[in-house]
Amino acid sequence: MDPMPSVLPDGEPMPEDGALPARALEGAGERPLGFYLHVPYCATRCGYCDFNTYTASELRGEGGVLASRDNYAGQVAEEIRLARKVLGDDPRPVRTVFVGGGTPTLLAAGDLVRMLGAIREEFGLADDAEITTEANPESVDPEYLAELRAGGFNRISFGMQSARQHVLKVLDRTHTPGRPEACVAEARAAGFEHVNLDLIYGTPGESDDDWRASLEAAIGAGPDHVSAYALIVEEGTQLARRIRRGEVPMTDDDVHADRYLIAEDVLSRAGFSWYEVSNWATSDAGRCLHNELYWRGADWWGAGPGAHSHVGGVRWWNVKHPGAYAAALGAGRSPGAGREVLSDEDRRVERVLLELRLREGCPLELLRPAGLAASRKALADGLLEDGAYGSGRAVLTLRGRLLADAVVRDLVD
User: Fold this and answer.
1) 233 falls in which pLDDT band (50, 70, 90)?
2) Can you spell out the DSSP letters for 341-387?
3) What are the distances in angstroms from CA 382 to CA 86, 118, 260, 379?
4) Which residue ranges does UniProt annotate as crossing the membrane (predicted)?
5) What is the pLDDT of residue 204?
6) Can you tell me the mean pLDDT for 162-177?
7) Hey, how many other C-beta atoms are within 10 angstroms of the C-beta on 26?
8) Which helix (H) or strand (E) holds 269?
9) pLDDT in tens, 103-144
10) Backbone angles phi, psi at 128, to 5 degrees
11) How do residues 262-275 score in pLDDT, each as one tens digit?
């Protein structure tokens, strides 16, 4: 689930003070609270990326001064203080913090620690809080990692994508093969308890052997978590234009399915277990708790341009441009661009959509009669696990994971 999609949805206007309906905070004490902090800066734009990110050249002109990296940590801290006002006397310490991007590590390590410090000061952190940042392998070194660890970060996610140079070139990734693996060792030396490597499969020109080599390189580096995502070619990206011009081929769904099966085979034999369709960990402790907040419909506040938030069935999203974001906060206004209040039916559908992707699956009691009928067919077709179904849960089999989107669609209908 993406807390920072590139295209903002429609919705009702956001109040200038960011106030939430009273119902949003009902029962809040029973739900965990997390923070997502979006850092929208990148040194270069990867060819496949359609996230809400900006290079230095893209921020020149209107709003450029306001959007400077130099004062960004202070702006995020200001939104965190706004969150404290909006959530009132909410007693919950923050359970997870995830700094994403963009490239968060383009900021000084002290800036990331400063943003975390604002959360600690305003809300407090749970004793076992998971504190994660994403990182570009070329934007960190041992000293940087040590400063993050000393500042309270205990989990880090490196964008590896591939171990093959020709695949990285198609993706316009700037790091060199081998650097992500070295980063894992440096993070371990700095004291990071949990380390993730992100991989992408299905890049034009990638072979099965290339994908196996990437998986084996990732495993050999010693992370306790691996995320593997099928490449999605988004309209408007450089990669989409190259494919349309015939410069590079496009892989199809069958290729993606084959690569997923390879991932499951290689990772499981190395001691990793899937816990979400695209995520594997070596233990329950290695699972990404922050992402589980999204998948389980908990509460999180997304700070930063374009970031999305959810509290008690109310979802809202911030203005996209860093200049507009800074201007709103500078004027004492919420940077929220719009919001929607989810109905009970909306929330039920979202639970099915998200929980079915988890290893624990979703309760059958969430399904309507048509969905239950579809689940029985999915069971007969080998897409759901027999044992779990008998215990009242819909859990995807390996074949079901390959067809997860279709299964989910049938069960919510």
Assistant:
1) low
2) EPPHHHHHHHHHHHHTTBTT-EEGGGS-HHHHHHHHHHHHTTSB-HH
3) 47, 49, 17, 5
4) none
5) 87
6) 85
7) 11
8) helix 253-269
9) 999 999 999 999 999 999 999 999 999 999 999 999 999 999
10) -110, 30
11) 999 999 999 999 99
Longest dimension (CA), the chain: 61
DSSP strand pairing (273-276 vs 225-230): unpaired
Measure the CA–CA gap between 38 and 35, rounded to whole angstroms: 10
The secondary structure of residue 12, as a DSSP letter, is B
What does the block give as tokens for 349?
A: 């559908």
pLDDT at 1 over 50: no
Q: Please compute the mean of the pLDDT values over residues 88-103 and round it to a whole number.
A: 93
Strands 362-363 and 336-341: unpaired
Mean pLDDT of the region 320-346 = 95
| 69 pLDDT tier (thresholds 50, 70, 90) | confident
| pTM of the predicted model over 0.90 | yes
Stretch 41-53: mean pLDDT? 59
Residue type, 209: D
List, as one string, the DSSP characters of 284-343. GGGS-HHHHHHHTT-EEEEESTT-EEEETTEEEEE-SSHHHHHHHHHTT---EEEEEEPP
Distances (CA, A) of 409 to 10, 342, 392: 22, 19, 19
Sequence-ordered alpha helix ranges (H) in 52-123: 72-87, 109-122
Q: 35: which 2 tokens?
A: 């923070």
First-last CA distance in the chain: 20
Q: Is the pLDDT of residue 7 over 80?
A: no
CA distance 33 to 122: 13
Q: Is residue 141 left, alpha or beta, with left meaning phi > 0 and alpha meaning psi from -120 to 50?
A: beta
Reduced to 3 states, what is the DSSP secondary structure of residue 37? strand
User: DSSP letter at 112?
Assistant: H
User: b/e map of 79-94 (b: 16 or more CB within 10 Å)?
Assistant: bbebbbebbeebebeb
Q: What angle do CA 232, 300, 275 make, to 5 degrees?
A: 55
